[in-house]
Amino acid sequence: MKTSLKIILIAIIGVWSVAAWAAEPSKLPKLVDLGADKCIPCKAMAPILKDLKAEYAGRMDVEFIDVWKNPDAGKTYKIKLIPTQIFFDASGKERFRHEGFFGKEDILAKWKELGVDIKAKASAGIVRETPVAADTRPRESVCFMCDENVNPKTKTLVKGQSEQRVLCGPHCYFIYLSSIVGVDPKAEEAKVSVTDWASGTLTPAASASYLYGMDAKGRATIKAFADKDAATKEQQTSPGSLVTWEVLCGKELSTRCAFCDRAVYPEDACNVKIGATRGYGCCTHCSMGVAARLQKDIEVEAKDGQTGEPIRVKTVAGQIASLEPATAIAWFGQKKSTDGKWVSAGCFKQAFFVSEANLQKWLEARPAMTGRQITIAQALADKIKLSPDQIAKACKLGECK
Ligand SMILES: [Zn+2]
Ligand SMILES: [Zn+2]
């Protein structure tokens, strides 16, 4: 009673914003660190708080309050010295406070000791570690990049040293090209063969002619021809521009993912607003990564993987500032690597959904898919915690993590 009276009084004298959540139950456990940006142990706390904030996004709230800049907060929390860390459980009840520097492991151990499971939320939602049905399609009929069935009329081959990669069409070749590091694109193009639309036989990509058209959704379509006359003939019934390999390369590589730099068609991508400029995320998770790569606040418009319904995410300082609809969730497509670790299954296996029900339907149609449901806050946090070096390698073949 006394405490609530005090809270009311404090609210009246104008620090309502600070006192409000302390009085109201918060949905997540919360760690409040009261310090100042110039105190030495407080400074040592800063990277720990940043880490916890990213790692436990959606499972624990972490707040830093600078009591030199905001002296009322010091009174509200009745602290004696800085830094002080206060542990609130999900009902908003204070469970513990610590004075002085407090290490990350100590903080985590304290939550455990208090019986507050801050990992609990991560295990909620859908997890699929083993495929419902194995993918039995022959390897040569599956695109190496996007995992779709290869249309024999657009099949594209890249010859490697020991193996050849089968791609569903020239567009996936450009995604492949923009996902490999340390190669000479000219040397690479000599290895590429495309299927001649007219005869169905393979022909070197660099010397073929291309009919570059557009489907009903405005997405580019590419037909390759060994013989230019055959391309001209096709153009009469199927409109498009007749282009050389060189022009095709320029077109295909002109639009890139603002996070991983892969070639992308805007029709397949998430729209990302970065201040006054616009970019694309080649997948939903890459779109979150734009905030990490550019260190800027972004607005993302993604489409539900199942229904195409819009999902809007705004970030501020590497955190989710708003999410519409609030029920939206992410699917983190993962696969087990040879050393037994779960790694990202790549950009083509990631998606956002407006609801868990939509994810469920999407998974039913994809029995071979493995991975787990995560929050969109977690999808963002996973990207924010990457180092610049990791970002530079993000989504590159063999580096996808
Ligand atoms: Zn493909
Ligand atoms: Zn990307």
Helix-strand blueprint:
Blueprint: H1 2-12, H2 16-23, E1 30-35, H3 40-55, E2 61-66, H4 71-76, E3 84-88, E4 94-99, H5 104-113, H6 120-123, E5 127-128, E6 156-159, E7 164-167, H7 170-177, H8 185-189, E8 192-195, E9 202-204, E10 209-214, E11 220-225, H9 228-237, E12 241-244, H10 245-252, E13 270-274, E14 277-281, H11 284-294, E15 299-303, E16 310-316, E17 319-324, E18 329-336, E19 342-344, E20 351-353, H12 356-364, E21 371-374, H13 376-384, H14 388-393
Parallel strand pairs: 1-2
Antiparallel strand pairs: 1-3, 3-4, 5-21, 6-7, 6-8, 8-9, 10-11, 10-12, 13-14, 13-15, 15-16, 16-17, 18-19, 18-20, 18-21
Bound molecules: zinc ion (ZN) (2 copies).
One zinc ion is lined by residues 143, 145-146, 148, 167-168, 172.
What features would you describe in this structure?
It contains 14 helices and 21 strands. The strands form 5 sheets. Strands 5, 18, 19, 20 and 21 form a 5-stranded antiparallel β-sheet that branches. The chain has a 5-stranded antiparallel β-sheet with strand order 14-13-15-16-17, with helices on one face. Strands 2-1-3-4 form a 4-stranded mixed β-sheet. It starts with a helix and ends in an 8-residue tail after the last helix. With 401 residues, it is α+β, with helices and mostly antiparallel strands. 30% of the residues lie in helices and 25% in strands. It binds zinc ion (2 copies). One zinc ion binds at residues 257, 259-260, 262, 281-283, 286, 347, 395.
